[in-house]
Amino acid sequence: STPVTTSCGITQAAREGLIIKGGNFLEVLGKLKIIAVDKTGTLTEGHFAVSQMLPVDSTTDIRQLLYWIASVESKSSHPMAPALVAYAQLHGVEISQEVTDFEILSGEGVSALVDRHLIQIGNERLASRLGWHEDIDAVTLEKCNVEGSTVGWAGVDGKCLGVYSMADQHRPEAYEAMESLKKLGIKVVMLTGDNHSSALAVSNKVGSIEFHAQLLPEDKVRTLQELKLTGITSMIGDGINDAPALAAADVGIAMGVAGSAVAMETAHVALMTNDLRKLAAAVILGRKCRSKIQ
Ligand code: ADP
Ligand code: MG
């Protein structure tokens, strides 16, 4: 490829809001066969709202539950964290000044010491591992299982304290963006750490795309490597958990505005506007560059 053509493509891409770290990635985009898309924060806005917050039983104080949760979540950069903090604030609950040992539990949630108590917050996977399903009655859990939403669990010192439910909105342009990619002959696959029910709900909203749910970051990488065997594959994501898959893709794309710094650093391309329709624009630009070169 000639340097002139390559840099011309990069300038044009920048005008479209795509920062490309090297002309070869534009060429790769031109040859794209498959795109793997993260759900939370990529196909969706990543702006969650809490719809249910239920203590495990009547002896558990809801304000205490909110205090533990918000204190830990104040340290988290996951898109679910601000919703949980805001929910606690709405109920006038303060955050502890003594939060230490904050940890990300890969594919499960988060934990920290709050006032020297171990607080663990996360999904089904975490609850199963800690045996929390036995602590909660079916009626409470059923109340939390709102269609298309994600159920979260919180506990103190290894014991379940409560469950909550939250939901997110798909990006308004996501359907159009996925349709455009399909029209270009590109296969779209959604990869998510979230549960099957919320993955299905988002898939239906964005044009019934194939999906794989409840993936750990390493599962995302493995799925990506399988997809790569069938053709040139891109991955687009926003989270810290997407970084390994972004690195493993033929071309990794990070959500620019909403994305985490780690995703931005790892990716080969950054979508500065968060507008998913720019994906098809990038492929078209890549194809144009290739035809110019050949
Ligand atoms: P995803 O991109 O689906 O959010 P992650 O690997 O980041 O994937 O997280 C997996 C799951 O762990 C999330 O879907 C969520 O249920 C739970 N989780 C992660 N971080 C948090 C957090 N800060 N608070 C509550 N739950 C969390
Ligand atoms: Mg994400």
User: Judging by the overall fold, what is the CATH architecture of the largest domain?
Assistant: 3-Layer(aba) Sandwich
- State the total count of DSSP E strands: 13
* Overall pLDDT level: 92
C-alpha-based Rg, rounded? 21 Å
Count of separate structural domains: 2
* Largest sheet properties: 7 strands, mixed
Principal-axes shape call:
elongated
State the strand order across the main sheet. 1-13-12-11-2-9-10
In the CATH scheme, the class of the largest domain would be Alpha Beta
What pattern of helices and strands is seen along the backbone?
HEHEHEHHEEEHHEEHEHEHEHEHEH
Helix and strand topology:
Blueprint: H1 3-15, E1 18-20, H2 23-30, E2 34-38, H3 39-43, E3 49-55, H4 62-73, H5 81-90, E4 99-105, E5 109-114, E6 117-122, H6 124-129, H7 138-144, E7 150-156, E8 159-167, H8 174-183, E9 187-191, H9 196-205, E10 210-212, H10 217-228, E11 233-237, H11 243-248, E12 251-255, H12 261-266, E13 269-271, H13 278-293
Parallel strand pairs: 2-9, 2-11, 9-10, 11-12, 12-13
Antiparallel strand pairs: 1-13, 3-8, 4-5, 5-6, 6-7, 7-8
Adenosine-5'-diphosphate is lined by residues 38, 40, 73, 76, 78, 80-81, 107-110, 121-123, 150, 152, 192-194, 239, 241.
Task: Characterize the structure shown.
By secondary structure, this protein is an alpha/beta fold. Helix content is 41%, strand content 24%. The protein has helices spanning 3-15, 23-30, 39-43, 62-73, 81-90, 124-129, 138-144, 174-183, 196-205, 217-228, 243-248, 261-266, 278-293, and strands spanning 18-20, 34-38, 49-55, 99-105, 109-114, 117-122, 150-156, 159-167, 187-191, 210-212, 233-237, 251-255, 269-271. A seven-stranded mixed beta sheet has the order 1-13-12-11-2-9-10, sandwiched between helices. Helix 1 runs antiparallel to helix 13 (278-293), helix 2 crosses helix 13 and helix 4 (62-73) packs across helix 5. The radius of gyration is 21 Å and the shape is elongated. The termini are close together. Adenosine-5'-diphosphate binds next to strand 5, strand 6 and strand 7.
